[in-house]
Design brief:
It is built from eleven helices and no strands. The chain is an all-alpha fold and about 280 residues long.
């Protein structure tokens, strides 16, 4: 661990991880409350389409993740997400329609040059390779995500638990739903930079699920989820840095593995505590 904080890539990784963890915790609570964890998983899978497309065009993968997240959110709303059953059907239709395109783009990435590492970077993340120039954009997206949840807190809360009552009270439920889907897409885009597209839903859903077991108040749960996400992300970065000398390859283990493993352990711990309390 010598020189951990002296390393520029590590410092950038810690900042990127913190931003992704905080916005994931805040957005993740409403993702779980609204029963849209499957949609979060779909955004992660479909982020592969944006990331691989960005590599093919030789642009920052973040822009690919974000653009596809916004487009997919709109497609889900267009297909129909007014009821939970409709959300699942719409998510499945969009997911199935786009994964084939993602596979094609990844194939083109890997066959164009065997040294791009596009598949590994997109699927499993490469937080130590994030350019410091991406920080202002990521900070803007993360800050906008948190502010959006704060601004929409009451409509989101009412439409999450009582959509019919929200509609009667004049809340534009469909617009709120679309806005939240776009927000989820952007959030998963940020987490994809940390743990890759395959595992990004774990950082969105896991800390939020833990927090909601600790507190039933959404506001408190968001703070707890952000804190849990921050701890597991920073711990995952530290463990990945320390693993540079670990067997079998002595080349380091991926950050994504440690982050997801710690999220899983945190959830088991919370569940065990809840069971002990009866």
């Amino acid at each position: 661990m010598t020189g951990f904080l002296a390393s520029d890539p590590v410092r950038v990784a810690l900042v990127v991880g913190a931003m992704a963890a905080v916005v994931s915790g805040v957005v993740g609570v409403f993702t779980v409350v609204r029963g849209q964890s499957f949609a979060g998983h779909a955004f992660g899978d479909l982020g592969t389409l944006g990331g691989s497309g960005a590599f093919l065009l030789n642009v920052n993968p973040l822009w690919g993740f974000v653009s596809v997240g916004a487009v997919v959110a709109g497609a889900m709303e267009l297909v129909g997400v007014q009821r939970r059953r409709g959300r699942d059907v719409a998510t499945g239709i969009v997911l199935g329609a786009a994964l084939g395109a993602a596979a094609l783009l990844l194939y083109l990435d890997t066959t164009r040059s065997s040294t791009t590492g596009a598949a590994v970077t997109v699927l499993f993340g490469s937080i130590f390779a994030v350019a410091s120039g991406s920080l202002p954009v990521m900070a803007g997206l993360a800050g906008a995500g948190v502010l959006a949840v704060v601004a929409l807190y009451r409509p989101l809360l009412l439409s999450s638990f009582h959509p019919e009552l929200a509609s009667v009270r004049g809340v534009p439920v469909r617009a709120v739903t679309l806005g939240f889907l776009v927000l989820m897409g952007v959030t998963v885009s940020l987490t994809s930079m940390v743990v890759g597209t395959i595992l990004s839903p774990a950082l969105l859903v896991g800390p939020a699920a833990c927090a909601l077991r600790l507190s039933r108040r959404p506001g408190v749960a968001m703070v707890l989820a952000a804190g849990i996400g921050l701890v597991v992300t920073w711990a995952g970065i530290a463990l990945a840095y320390a693993s540079a000398t670990w067997p079998p390859s002595h080349a380091g283990w991926p950050v994504s593995f440690f982050v997801v493993a710690l999220v899983f352990l945190a959830y088991l711990g919370v569940e065990a505590g809840a069971a002990a309390r009866g």
